[in-house]
Inverse folding.
């Protein structure tokens, strides 16, 4: 294939020339409308019906039936157009669906006829007419009045096929939503998932709160932050990587059940499951621990799955995922033994496994034993965790905000749920011993010269813990990953309206 050919056999120049011809024709029609005294951008239109409701209310009509006693006013984008002499069929798409429309130009007023004669695919129009069913049995609107509401100047993507170029799909999401009904449904489902999550927590007595996006000290996760500068205060600020430390202060202040669904920002790589800006649910509940939250977490996910899909079982990328509770429990150390086939406490065996199985070089001298154990688990076990699994009891070295395991001082009371080989959340029995918390943060602070994701010291947070935080269970859930699972989308970019993209220059 020559350099100037695209996959469907058109030269790039001819495609650009074709689009330019369409754009020029659109501008001519725009000018013609204005010369006829027709405003191509009126201020409003009185919509009295949505397509979804018309289909629901009149789908049982028989072929040839008419409902001439009532006129409905709908508005939407012109998606198809078939002219047959003085009669025309076309499809209008609004926020709720698509409907066939029919008109005879001779029955329109002069202004309406002029507007229709100067219409293009993609234009937004207002229509008034009555419902009927065509002889072929298709529900339709018989148009009595036709109004142009927005004259467009850009051509639409090829009809029926959506956008195949993912770069265009993500960068120009509006085109994707116009041309791909399934893509639009994904985002509708995303909204429903968030509502279902909030309802689950609201029904259990949680209060929704908000925490600062701009923070003087970042914390609550192992991640690199985005930084900015506040001019009036002449101080460096960080964009939130987690709401954890602020939500815990609310627990200290006497709010026993709090949650936030909000944006987090982490200055990290971009891949199938990571975007620098993402949405996270975090909730904290006083007088509970990670054992209690394991049950609550799986109940939350399974109930949302049932609410959204009507079943506890879904298909994800061609394989079944069963959200039915209880989920499998797997300790980190058992996972290493089962999947790596080595002794999880044998550091030499851990080193050898990492040297042999890691895709990229690892500086073992910079890792403590707990970090090595987690890397082995990540390589050996995580790719095997398709069905919902609670991975629990992590090494103490990697969890500075978590209580020591009540039965093993080398571990902490932490769990991470995995589904379809993806970590979808995190939970702790939260550390509330102020002396131990200070010592853990000091240890993290000492590592910051070699690990830029080590947790910084936060004296204000320590002051809150010293004031007294009750026993608390805390949980985080990645909203995007849950949406990916319940909409069968392989990439986080498919379920974020506007994923982070490199600017075209």
């Amino acid at each position: 294939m020559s350099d100037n050919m695209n996959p469907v056999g058109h030269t790039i120049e001819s495609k650009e020339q074709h689009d330019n011809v369409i754009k020029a024709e659109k501008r001519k029609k725009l000018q013609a409308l204005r010369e006829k005294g027709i405003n191509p951008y009126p201020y409003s239109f009185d919509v009295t019906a949505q397509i979804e409701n018309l289909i629901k209310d009149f789908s049982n009509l028989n072929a040839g039936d008419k409902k001439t006693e009532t006129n409905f006013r709908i508005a939407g984008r012109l998606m198809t157009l078939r002219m047959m002499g003085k009669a025309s069929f076309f499809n209008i798409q609004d926020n709720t669906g698509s409907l066939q429309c029919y008109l005879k130009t001779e029955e329109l007023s002069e202004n309406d006829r002029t507007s229709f004669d100067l219409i293009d695919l993609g234009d937004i129009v207002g229509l008034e007419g009555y419902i009927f069913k065509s002889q072929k049995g298709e529900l339709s609107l018989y148009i009595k009045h036709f109004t142009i509401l927005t004259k467009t100047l850009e051509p639409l993507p090829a009809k029926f096929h959506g956008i195949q170029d993912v770069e265009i799909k993500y960068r120009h999401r509006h085109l994707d939503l116009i041309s791909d009904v399934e893509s639009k449904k994904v985002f509708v489902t995303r909204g429903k998932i968030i509502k279902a999550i909030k309802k689950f927590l609201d029904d259990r007595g949680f209060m929704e709160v908000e925490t600062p996006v701009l923070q003087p000290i970042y914390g609550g996760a192992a991640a690199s932050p985005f930084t900015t500068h506040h001019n009036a205060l002449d101080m460096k600020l960080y964009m939130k990587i987690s709401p954890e430390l602020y939500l815990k202060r609310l627990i200290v202040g006497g709010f026993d059940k709090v949650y936030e669904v909000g944006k987090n920002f982490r200055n990290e790589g971009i891949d199938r499951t990571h975007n620098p800006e993402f949405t996270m649910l975090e909730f904290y509940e006083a007088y509970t621990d990670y054992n209690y939250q394991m049950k609550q977490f799986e109940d939350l996910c399974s109930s949302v799955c049932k609410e959204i899909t009507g079943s506890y079982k879904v298909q994800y990328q061609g394989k079944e995922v069963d959200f039915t509770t209880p989920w499998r429990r797997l300790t980190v150390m058992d996972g290493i033994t089962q999947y790596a086939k080595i002794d999880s406490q044998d550091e030499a065996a851990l080193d050898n496994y990492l040297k042999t199985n890691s895709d990229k070089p690892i500086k073992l001298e910079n890792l403590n034993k707990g970090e090595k154990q987690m890397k082995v688990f990540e390589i050996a076990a995580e790719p095997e965790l398709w069905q919902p699994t609670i991975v629990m009891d992590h090494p103490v070295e990697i969890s500075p905000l978590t209580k020591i395991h009540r039965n093993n001082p080398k571990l902490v009371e932490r769990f991470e749920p995995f589904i379809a080989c993806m970590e979808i959340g995190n939970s702790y029995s939260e550390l509330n011993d102020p002396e131990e918390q200070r010592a853990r943060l000091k240890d993290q602070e000492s590592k910051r010269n070699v690990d830029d994701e080590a947790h910084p010291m936060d004296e204000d947070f320590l002051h809150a813990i010293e004031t007294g935080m009750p026993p608390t269970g805390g949980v985080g859930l990645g909203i995007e990953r849950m949406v990916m699972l319940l909409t069968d989308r392989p990439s986080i970019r498919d379920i974020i309206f506007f994923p982070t993209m490199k600017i075209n220059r």
